[in-house]
Amino acid sequence: MLMESRAYTCIVRCERLLHTDAIWNDLLSWFRLPASCPCDHRPLVHGRVKGLRDLNINAMRARQSRPSVARVYSYVLGGRDNYGVDKDVGDFFMGDLPGSEMLAITNRQAILRAARDMASDGIRQVIDMGCGLPTDENVHDVLRRKVPDARVVYVDNDPFVVAHGRALLAIDENIAVVEADVGDPAAIREHPDVQRLIDFDEPVGIIFGVVLSFLDDEADPAAVVRDWSQRLAPESRVYISHFRTGRTREAVATERKIRDAFGVGTWRDEEKIKSFFGDLELLEPGMAPCARWRPEPPAPGTDPVQKDLSIWEDLIVAGMARKR
Ligand SMILES: C[S@@+](CC[C@H](N)C(=O)[O-])C[C@H]1O[C@@H](n2cnc3c(N)ncnc32)[C@H](O)[C@@H]1O
């Protein structure tokens, strides 16, 4: 979403600052701040401005001209918060590789089912790694249907995601959005919001929604998962979804386009992905294409129909494991 640049005087830290660039205007819109400066310091505005304070606005500016994984993924899912550079990549997938959006769609649906099952299994606190931009339904929405006071920390290394998340996801004190690299578990654990919200003596749910696909082998995703697993209490859950290597022409083209567009993106075979769980107990149905991972039961009175997977649905798999 690119809005027209306009002058705006704002009260961040009660200073009067003049912001005229597109990023700032986007932020005002995401945080639903009024178009003209309300210098009467109304509490509502102050509450929202608080969320703006620590944003990495310079990093956002620097990333505006390059496609971002989060924004392209959101665009493919039907989101509106993106720039021309993101649309170009998203349109390539949907135009040149029709059907490839099912990679994103089935991945997102499976994550929400994972959150549903974590809540059913008694998990009351979740860290969502590489959470992405907010969608119509988010991990905390699903968890809170069963656990109204569920605590959630969303983690992402993209400052746009953090800005959006603070505006739209962090709706109360039990939800935080942290800017951090998934490849650095210690930094995440030491973050004040993680220390405040996550009790590692109790079961925790950790969601790695396709984010490990964006860690190269040198970043050692297996070690990242192991690091977390070692610190989790019994009955914790770890969910991973990941791009699976395919041999079709379409699979090769998708893999190449993701690498070219973002400079990262590693596709792995199922055995490799499974090995990330290490000593954790992989729960039923094991690793499966996201589209087949614990699907919603058929509507009452209808027969379960197992339709064939498309080539795209076959390229993303998921699994959930339990700490014994
Ligand atoms: C394809 S999106 C997936 C979003 C969400 N997890 C889902 O599956 O619906 C991948 C997300 O991972 C984030 N990401 C990629 N590499 C990361 C890293 N090293 N640390 C933290 N976040 C990362 C991206 O910014 C993006 O928001």
Description:
This protein has a domain at 100-292 and 309-323: 3-Layer(aba) Sandwich (Rossmann fold). Helix content is 40%, strand content 14%. It contains 13 helices and ten strands. The strands form two sheets. Strands 3, 4, 5, 6, 7, 8, 9 and 10 form an eight-stranded mixed beta sheet that branches. Strands 1-2 form a two-stranded antiparallel ribbon. A hairpin with a 6-residue loop joins β1 (8-10) and β2. The protein is globular, with a radius of gyration of 20 Å. Mean pLDDT is 87; it is low at 1-20 and 37-47. It binds S-adenosylmethionine. S-adenosylmethionine is lined by residues 69-70, 73, 107-108, 111, 130-132, 156-158, 161, 181-183, 209-211, 214-215.
List its salient traits.
alpha/beta; 13 helices; 14% strand; disordered N terminus; binds S-adenosylmethionine
